[in-house]
Structures are given as C-alpha cells and as structure tokens.
C-alpha cells in the first residue's frame, strides 16, 4: 500500500502535452526531488562517454579545472526553466544564457540531440529502478513534451516526432558513439571525483570509486576505462538504493517543493545572476574536431 498518492493523482488529472511544465514540476520537486537530481547527474555523465563531447570539454579545460562550478552552472540553468517554466521570464533567460554558452563552440546537431535525449529518458530509467514508485505514463509523456519544447527553443533540428522514435535514436546513438578515449577518461574521472567529494574526504575517495562504477552499465563504464565494481559492492549499492525507495513509500508526502534554486551551491555562496552562469573566459580559438580523443 502506498500512502503518498496525492501528487500522482493530481498529475493524472492533467494533460501530458498541454500541462507538461506543471507535471514535471510536481513530479520532480514533490515526489522525486532527490531521484530526479541524481538522474540528471548521471544523464550528463553519460554524455561524457562520447569522444566528440568529452573532447570539447577536455580541450576547453572547463570541467577538469572547475568541475564544481561547471556542475553548479548546469544544474542552476536547468533548474531555472524547470522550476519557473520556459514560458516564464526567468526560464527564457536561462535558455537564452544556455544558448549563448553553447554557441561559442562548434557542436553537431546530432550531439545536441543526444544530450537532449538523455534528459528525456534517464529520469524515467533511474526512477523505474530506484524510485519509490514507477514513473507514470503521464510523467513519461510530459517529460518528452517538455524537453522537446526546450530543444526547439535551443534551435535543435530534426527532433524525432515521437517518444518511441527518440528513444530508438538514443539507443542507436550510444551503440554507435560510446567508445573509449583519453578525453572520456579525463572528464569521467573529474566527474566521478566531484560526485565523491560531496560525501567523502579526499583520503577516502579512492575507496568510494567502486560505488560509482556500480551504477554504470558496461558500455558506459568501458567508454571511461573504469574497472567493474566488485559484485559485493554492486549488490550493496543497489540494495541500499532499493531499501531507500521502499522506506520512502511510507513516509508522509512532501508538503512543499524542494527547489534547487533555493539550495546552497558551493560556487555561489552569496547567490547568482542567470547571465553570470557559465564560463567567463573566451573559448579556445581552435575547437577540437569530432572524435577528438584527448
């Protein structure tokens, strides 16, 4: 028996396309605040297994040198238009700032499409595995309509016309483009160390690395050059996450949304302006070619 049903019942009364922004807000900020945040972290992590994407980050030096700031910038920009909506003035400013940052570099439309697809599919995949209830059909479709509209506002072309077609693109893209490169390893290690820095002091972080590896599927792990986690670590990590999800089913429902923009961020202890998020230095004069491997 689930005691936390009120939010899902409200979601079920909404239209997945017309009310996509409202559904995503209710889902992510009331029912799944921690899970949606982790899902987006690992969604971004997946994109670093593509040499053309990791090569750009490695070449610019932004992620390795300023991993925490890069993470905070990305999280806050996304949170601004998820929390306020892309029809809201703050949401439009966040998407405009995101476009300004990306347009400094030569990025293929196919890579843009893939990154967009991870935001559509990874939250559902994570929550179906580790959430206290499965993602509903309304949430699945609303997530698709929401990110499709964001993609259009980012001038991403050739977005597949259906959820199913976009998921096929996502799977086929990973099958074709996930492969090991030095730039993958550099960015993957920087990201893994960032994750561990939130929970462990520096001397213990190496001991925590297998716990991160336990959450990566084999193609992703191999693209980073990470060793497999020992089986006891895999069982422990997955078991703890499932035990957490089981316990959450019986806790009282969240009365107030857990807004990411209201949480403390290490890079901005005194607050931030949307237009100041992102790198402030000039981009490299010669961006790496596609497939650059570090």
Keywords:
294 residues; mainly alpha; 14 helices; 0% strand; globular; disordered C terminus
Fold blueprint:
Blueprint: H1 6-12, H2 20-31, H3 33-47, H4 51-60, H5 62-65, H6 67-83, H7 89-102, H8 109-130, H9 137-153, H10 163-177, H11 182-197, H12 205-213, H13 218-224, H14 231-248
Helix pairs in contact: 2-3, 2-9, 3-8, 4-11, 6-7, 8-9, 8-10, 11-12
Short description:
By secondary structure, the protein is an all-alpha fold. Helix content is 62%, strand content 0%.
Please give the number of β-strands: 0
Shape: globular
The tally of domains stands at 1
Into which percentage range does the β-strand content fall?
under 5%
Q: Kindly state the mean pLDDT as a whole number?
A: 92
Helix content: 55-70%
First-residue to last-residue Cα separation: 51 Å
Major sheet characteristics: none
Question: How would you classify the quaternary structure?
Answer: single chain
Describe the structure.
It is a single chain. This protein is mainly α. It has one domain. Helix content is 62%, strand content 0%. Helix 2 crosses helix 3, helix 2 packs across helix 9 and helix 11 packs across helix 12. The protein is globular. The N and C termini lie far apart (51 Å). The C terminus is likely disordered. This is DUF2236 domain-containing protein. It comes from Archangium minus.
């Amino acid at each position: 028996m689930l005691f936390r049903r009120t939010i899902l019942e409200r979601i079920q009364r909404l239209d997945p396309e017309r009310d996509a922004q409202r559904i995503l807000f209710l889902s992510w900020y009331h029912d799944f605040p921690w899970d949606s945040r982790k899902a987006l972290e690992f969604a971004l992590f997946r994109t670093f297994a593509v040499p053309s994407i990791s090569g750009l980050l490695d070449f610019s030096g932004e992620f390795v040198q300023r991993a925490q700031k890069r993470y905070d910038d990305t999280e806050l920009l996304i949170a601004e238009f998820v929390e306020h909506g892309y029809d809201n003035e703050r949401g439009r400013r966040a998407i405009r700032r995101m476009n300004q940052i990306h347009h400094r570099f030569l990025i293929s439309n196919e890579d843009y499409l893939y990154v967009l697809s991870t935001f559509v599919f990874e939250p559902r995949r994570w929550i179906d595995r580790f959430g206290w209830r499965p993602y509903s059909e309304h949430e699945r479709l609303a997530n698709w309509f929401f990110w499709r509209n964001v993609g259009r506002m980012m001038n991403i072309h050739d977005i597949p016309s259906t959820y199913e077609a976009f998921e096929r693109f996502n799977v086929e893209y990973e099958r074709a483009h996930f492969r090991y490169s030095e730039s993958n390893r550099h960015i993957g290690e920087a990201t893994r160390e960032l994750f561990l820095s939130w929970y462990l002091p520096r001397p213990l972080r190496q001991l925590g690395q297998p716990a991160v590896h336990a959450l990566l599927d084999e193609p992703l792990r191999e693209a980073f050059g990470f060793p497999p986690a020992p089986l006891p670590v895999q069982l422990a990590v997955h078991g703890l996450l499932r035990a957490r999800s089981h316990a959450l089913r019986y806790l009282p429902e969240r009365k107030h949304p857990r807004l990411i923009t209201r949480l403390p961020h290490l890079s901005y202890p005194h607050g931030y302006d949307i237009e100041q998020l992102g790198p402030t230095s000039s981009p490299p004069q010669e961006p790496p070619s596609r497939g650059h491997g570090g």
